[in-house]
Amino acid sequence: MSEAQGVTLSFEDGARAVELAREAIEGYVLHGQREQPGSMREAFYQRTGALVRIESTRGPGALRGCSGQYHSSDQLGHVIVDAAITAASDDSCGSEVRGAELDNVVVSTCIVRNVVLTDDPLADLELGRHGVAVDAGGTGGWLYPTIPVENGWSKEEYLTRTCRKARLSPLAWQDEDTVVTLFEGEVFRERSPRGPVEHLG
Q1: Which of 67, 61, 160, 157 minimizes the C-alpha distance to 110?
Q2: Paired strand residues for 68
Q3: Cα(46)–Cα(48) distance, integer angstroms
Q4: Which residues contact 50 (CB under 8 A, 6 or more apart)?
Q5: What are the pLDDT digits (tens) for 113-154?
Q6: DSSP 3-state of 166
Q7: Beta-carbon contacts of residue 120 (< 8 Å; ≥ 6 apart)
Q8: Rounded to an integer, what distance in angstroms lies between the CA atom of residue 90 and that of residue 182?
Q9: Which of 76, 78, 148, 166 can bridge 153 by disulfide, Cβ–Cβ 3.0-4.6 Å?
Q10: pTM assigned to the model
């Protein structure tokens, strides 16, 4: 098992990460523009991965988009903006987020802190702490760290569903040729659309 350290954010940094993602989503959806991060907090110049998730408040579990990179050599501020735009586009869940939806979506960000390559996912995986990424033969996919807790999944189901998302065999995570990566991240989320931000760990 190998591990790489990433960035740890203060609550203020995390709240700004969500705000930045929201600004990027709205700039793209309303004006077709890529918002620049502007004057960034110091942490946002560090180079690490980030994920952005957009959920509709209309219906339980209504995912509208999710995108990002769990490892990146770009500055965090730019990774957040790019992830937010892709999550809002039709490249994510097949339908672009519309302007009329913006008052009814909750935005969250996951800022990657540690990345672990593991050869024993069941032993190393901690539900609620780790996101999971799988890659086999150039085909890969990942799932957000909070998803298994939200859905009551076991470790096995979490790994299986990550493989399915990657369009691999459900048990591909057990294959020697499959690279399984665990990424630990800090998740910050709006409690309500454009509302206060909470830190989910």
Answers
A1: 67
A2: 51
A3: 6
A4: 17, 68, 69, 72, 76, 79, 80, 83, 109, 110, 111, 112, 185
A5: 889 899 999 999 999 999 999 999 889 999 999 999 999 999
A6: coil
A7: 1
A8: 27
A9: 148
A10: 0.89
